[in-house]
What we know:
Blueprint: H1 21-25, H2 29-42, H3 44-66, E1 88-90, E2 92-109, E3 113-114, E4 124-130, E5 139-145, E6 150-154, E7 158-161, E8 171-178, E9 181-187, E10 194-200, E11 207-215, E12 219-225, E13 228-234, E14 238-250, E15 255-259, E16 275-280, E17 283-288, E18 292-294, H4 301-305, H5 309-330, H6 332-339, H7 343-380, H8 395-422, H9 425-436, H10 438-442, H11 448-457, H12 490-514
Antiparallel strand pairs: 1-18, 2-8, 2-11, 2-14, 2-15, 3-14, 4-5, 4-11, 5-6, 6-7, 8-9, 9-10, 12-13, 14-17, 16-17
Amino acid sequence: MTTPTTPANPPAPAVTPYRSQLASARAGFPQLLRAEWTKLRTVSRWGATLLAAVVVTVLVSLLSAYSGSSSFSGNRSAPPVGPDGTVVSDNFPFVHQPLTGDGSITARVSPFTGREGSIAPWAKAGIMIKESTKPGAPYVAAMITQGHGVRLQSNFTHDIAGGATNDDEPHWLRLTRSGDELTAYESADGKDWNKVGTAKLTGLPRTAQAGLFVATPGQVRVERQFGSTSVGSEPAEVTASFDHLTVDGGQGGWLQDDIGEVLPEGSEETQGATEKSTEKSGTWTLTGSGDIGPFTPETDLTQQSLSGAQIGLIPLAALGVLFITAEYRRGMIRTTLTASPRRGRVLAAKAVVLAGAAFVAGLVAAVLSFLLSEPALREKAPNPLFHPEAALTDGPVLQAVVGTAVLLAAVAVLALAAGALLRNTAAAITLIVILLVLPVLLLSGLPLDTANWVMKLTPLAGFAVQRTLPEYAHTDDICLPEDGCYPQGPWTGLAVLCAYAALALGLAIWRLRRRDV
């Protein structure tokens, strides 16, 4: 019988390598998000900071709406309303005659002459086919302007650019009607014609009014010095002559009407028109003021109702900084990075959680600020007709409210990145406040061009998303930084702030990966 032998060195039993359950739990990005969310919601003072951001934003907005003197000026009568419901300026001298059915009007328009030789760039003179002489009635106009060449404008808000004009030479214009379509042409000599464009007036009656007009916005003077800005205006007046005038399809003689209000000479208002219309040997000479175009309110009520966000961002900036510097101060960052060695993902998870919480808090704050403040601001307006009621579901309002929440979330992420880079709570919070609050205090003391560049290129640009007033290329409104007027579009401004936040976060991730804890 053979006895089995035992090997001198038996093989060791297989052992499963130990893996930290903590590291395994946090290996994936969803697990990192859960861990960072747990940190945020379990620290009571951080939740209190989110609540403080909401309360501060709403309270500051309410104080701005209810306290202080009204920022509105003037006591205007009921404004005319255009075909699409937009409040408009429609004030000018109109020499016209009925045009029945299809037809055309042609005229040669002389260069402008103005009071004391000063002529506004959007002074305009030309030919028009208008539904009626009622202010706000639909129209199409072919015109020359002082500083913007030939234009085809219709229904106050639509504008098509034509060719350039010579300020020393007359220019020919023609406007033809074919049903509801009206087409404008221009010519330097009355022989070679170029098409400017076509506009459609749906529902234009068979008999409309075809004629001549002249108008010019008022002269505006802006004087700026540190701490104050003075804006003054006075009526302007221009003269233009019309000859070689023909109307194909016209009926009857020429009529003279004043469209809109006529203001006394020297009035401080610029919404009316003063005019003189004379005819000699077939040449009409029109002198007038006023304007034809969209009316832009002086104050953006929605933007003002959200003004508390400029102060409400401070608690969120503090939270963003503390969300990372608290871990450094207590030494917890070593535990976090040991459990999750991929440092970039840790900071990215913090940014996502913080941005989500800040967005929700910002959205609540913006909704409450608008609903509570906007009605109070409307009541302070001398004529609410210039400031129609706005609903939360209106496109521009929704853009401003949601955009404010995105803005606050971006500020929180920017603050997080600053905290990760500086690792000093006080220094990081101070930096964010300097970037976003200090420029607001300094804008009124800067030259206008410099102030506009500050609003374009700094994180302050993000507040442009709160502006809801429409902007038109064919108007010459005064855009002052202290009035909350931004030189760029709403989403462009917000994109600038988000770019700062993304760049700072990327830099913070890069530094975190390359230095010791």
